[in-house]
Amino acid sequence: MLAKIGKIIAINVVALLFLFPFLFLLMNTFKGKMEILKNPLAFPTEWSLDNYIEAFEEMNYINSITNSIIITVIGVIVLNVFGAMMAFYLARFKTKANSIIYLVMTATMLIPFQTLMIPFVSIYGNLGMLNNRWILIYFYLGFGISLSTFIYHGFVNKLSISLDESASIEGASKFAIFWKIIFPQLKPITATLTVLNVLWLWNDYLLPSLVLVNKDRTLPLNTYSFFGKYTSEYGLAMSGLVLSILPVIIFYLFMQKHIVSGITEGAVK
Question: How confident is the model over 157-181, as pLDDT tens digits?
Answer without folding.
Answer: 888 788 777 878 877 788 888 888 8
